[in-house]
Design goal:
Blueprint (H helix, E strand, L loop, with lengths): L4 E6 L14 H16 L3 E6 L7 H6 L4 H25 L4 E5 L8 E2 L2 H9 L3 E5 L9 H11 L4 E6 L4 E2 L11 E2 L1 E2 L1 H7 L6 H9 L4 E5 L5 H6 L6 E3 L1
Parallel strand pairs: 1-2, 1-6, 2-5, 3-4, 3-5, 6-10, 9-11
Antiparallel strand pairs: 7-8, 10-11
């Protein structure tokens, strides 16, 4: 097995599946099956999900919401997604635990590194929700922070495309895919992989990132087995 402990970052948008917003039950089920498969192989799995399928703090502030309140609404959106995934995991007999960055028992337990590591070592899939608990930080930064705290071997960014390209492959047919790319090159080329804070945290803590297409079933297992799919950022 290539990695023993991972942090899987899922975008909120990907949970929409074919819908315009909200949560597509089929997509969440597919994710749950893939996560169960690698957890069954002995991989310790931490997960962070965005909230963009429900509410985006930043675009909310464009519409007249106070930025701090907008970001707090975004954090709550990630909690809704985390509960949906946790429920889907339990439906396929995969035990999971939701930890929240803001106190909200009984919805989830309050996050601490000790609690997270204890649950991972006991075989739970641990879902970290509510971002960092602070405004002005994205869920990308939240996932970098959690990955570093739990000492994950890698951060996996599950997206709708199969890696990092020179431009958006959905818009530019001439875009070329990278198999490997450095953090600095992402910065210098202005590629929108993650926000700058998240990328810098990964770089400073030597945390590799693998960007891959999570919507193809079996891809998560392939990454675990060391197959060269997606793009490795180092």
């Amino acid at each position: 097995m290539k990695y023993k402990r991972i942090l899987l970052k899922l975008s909120g948008e990907s949970l929409m599946g074919e819908q315009k917003y909200g949560i597509d039950a089929k997509r969440v089920e597919s994710y749950a099956r893939q996560i169960k498969e690698i957890a069954g192989m002995g991989v310790q799995v931490g997960i962070v999900i965005g909230g963009g399928n429900i509410f985006r703090g930043l675009s909310g502030s464009d519409k007249g919401f106070d930025r701090v309140k907008g970001d707090q609404m975004g954090m709550l959106a990630t909690v809704i997604n985390s509960l949906a995934l946790s429920s889907a995991l339990e439906n396929v007999d995969c035990k999971s635990k939701v930890l929240t960055a803001i106190r909200m028992e009984p919805i989830g337990e309050f996050y601490s590194k000790a609690k997270a590591v204890e649950c991972l070592e006991a075989g739970y899939v641990v879902i970290f929700s509510a971002g960092t608990g602070n405004p002005y930080f994205t869920t990308d930064t939240g996932s970098s922070l959690r990955a570093i705290e739990i000492e994950a071997d890698v951060m996996l960014k599950g997206t709708r495309v199969d890696g990092i390209y020179t431009a958006d492959p959905e818009k530019d047919p001439a875009a070329v895919k990278f198999n490997r790319i450095t953090y600095d090159e992402i910065y210098n080329r202005g590629l929108k992989v993650m926000d700058l804070t998240a990328t810098t945290m990964c770089k400073e803590n030597h945390l590799p990132i693998v960007v891959f297409n999570m919507d193809v079933e079996g891809n998560l297992r392939r990454v675990m087995e060391g197959e060269e799919i997606g793009t490795v950022v180092y």
